[in-house]
Amino acid sequence: LPEEFKSALPIIHTLEAAGYEAYFVGGAVRDTLLNKPIHDVDIATSAYPEEVKQLFDRTVDTGIEHGTVMILDHGQGYETTTFRTESTYTDFRRPDQVTFVRSLSDDLKRRDFTINALALRGDGLVVDLFNGVSDLEHQTLRAVGHASDRFQEDALRMMRAVRFAAQLDFTIEPDTKQAIVDHAPLLEKIAIERVNVELTKMLQGRNAQYGLLELLATRLNAYMPGLKNVEIDLWGYAELLAKDQPDTPTVAWTLLAFELGLTPKDTETFLRLWKHGNELIQQAQKAITLLNVLRQSEATNWQLYMTGDAFPNAMRVLQLSQLPNDVLELKNRYMQLAIHHRDELQISGKILQSAINLQPGPMFGKILGELEKLVVAGQVANNQSDLIARAKAIAEKEK
Ligand code: ATP
Ligand code: MG
């Protein structure tokens, strides 16, 4: 057992000693069997939430209505969820009702894919009701039970299918794939934020290319904002992903906007439809502004400068985009800019005021703005005497 499981064993043992069943479940079990590092350890138990809380001193109700209680132990938190079934999905997205049950098999049955439906007992026994171990060995992604029913219950699972396939480099088994084709339109029922989470993980997967090609083959893209009827661009993106994958959400989405040929303004509109945060949107807009220049011609110093803190992301996207631009040379040019920020100008409003005897006002900003441009262009050195001399000249001219 990996360390993360070992340190959680006391929790399993406490539950078992009280007469309940308790197992490790979910992604951590899958990843352990794949010899991959694990993120969070999830425990499933026959104990009801109130029974769990009675057994442990320190617990937090993180999702008590779904049966989840976080147990705090040695500075670690372990999500412990009561075995449950989910019944009557009428809106294709979440269960109308969660029912706590005492049987592990009922709990495993409601899980999405066979490789995610494994349970690991404290003594190392693996409970494998749906041949998940065999699917792990054959790198196969297969829905638990009848795929068509499972996607109708919860359409997000279709996105999870392409996401896991990309992350794990697994093949989606034919019946599961056909069920995605059949139910792709249901994706529109899912909150865009949740689709976004899966797509973002998919684009960073080690076989992101396969994930994106399966997404296209099943037509899931037709039910996503801004991705309908842009198959050619998305094929182009998939081709890029064969060689290397984005390392962050910002890079993944900026590259997508770039491959779609969007303007900075359209990039914002597109990313807002996907409910991205302002930080990612601003980064993408600044990067796209520079990238659209680089697609056509050389960038000026000013254009490099204006990219600001989005410059590293822009360069990463440029690398992935396979454009012929010399990324190293651009990075050098950026590093060698005289300033990277207006506040690095060796002159302040105060000095300006006393040196050229000018009252604060719009003229101030105008002069500072011009000095900034001249310094970035390398036409004026960034030292106080040169800047004051030039400021005087500008003020004179403006009079
Ligand atoms: P990751 O490493 O990305 O966290 P994971 O398998 O742990 O992968 P989670 O989203 O954390 O994925 O979910 C934990 C487990 O809960 C899954 O392994 C699966 O058994 C179950 N699960 C999660 N979402 C669904 C869903 N939409 N339908 C059915 N089962 C689900
Ligand atoms: Mg998880």
From TrEMBL:
Residues 169-228 form the tRNA nucleotidyltransferase/poly(A) polymerase RNA and SrmB- binding domain. A single active site specifically recognizes both ATP and CTP and is responsible for their addition. Mg(2+) binds at D40, D42. It comes from Weissella diestrammenae. Its EC number is 2.7.7.72. Catalyzes the addition and repair of the essential 3'-terminal CCA sequence in tRNAs without using a nucleic acid template. Adds these three nucleotides in the order of C, C, and A to the tRNA nucleotide-73, using CTP and ATP as substrates and producing inorganic pyrophosphate. tRNA 3'-terminal CCA addition is required both for tRNA processing and repair. Also involved in tRNA surveillance by mediating tandem CCA addition to generate a CCACCA at the 3' terminus of unstable tRNAs. While stable tRNAs receive only 3'-terminal CCA, unstable tRNAs are marked with CCACCA and rapidly degraded. This is CCA-adding enzyme. Residues 247-389 form the CCA-adding enzyme C-terminal domain. CTP binds at G27, R30, R111, D154, R157, R160, R163. It catalyses: a tRNA precursor + 2 CTP + ATP = a tRNA with a 3' CCA end + 3 diphosphate; a tRNA with a 3' CCA end + 2 CTP + ATP = a tRNA with a 3' CCACCA end + 3 diphosphate. NCBIfam families: PRK13299.1. Belongs to the tRNA nucleotidyltransferase/poly(A) polymerase family. Bacterial CCA-adding enzyme type 3 subfamily. GO terms for biological process: RNA repair; tRNA 3'-terminal CCA addition. Keywords: ATP-binding, Magnesium, Metal-binding, Nucleotide-binding, Nucleotidyltransferase, RNA repair, RNA-binding, Transferase, tRNA processing. GO terms for molecular function: ATP binding; CCA tRNA nucleotidyltransferase activity; magnesium ion binding; tRNA binding. The keyword tRNA processing applies.
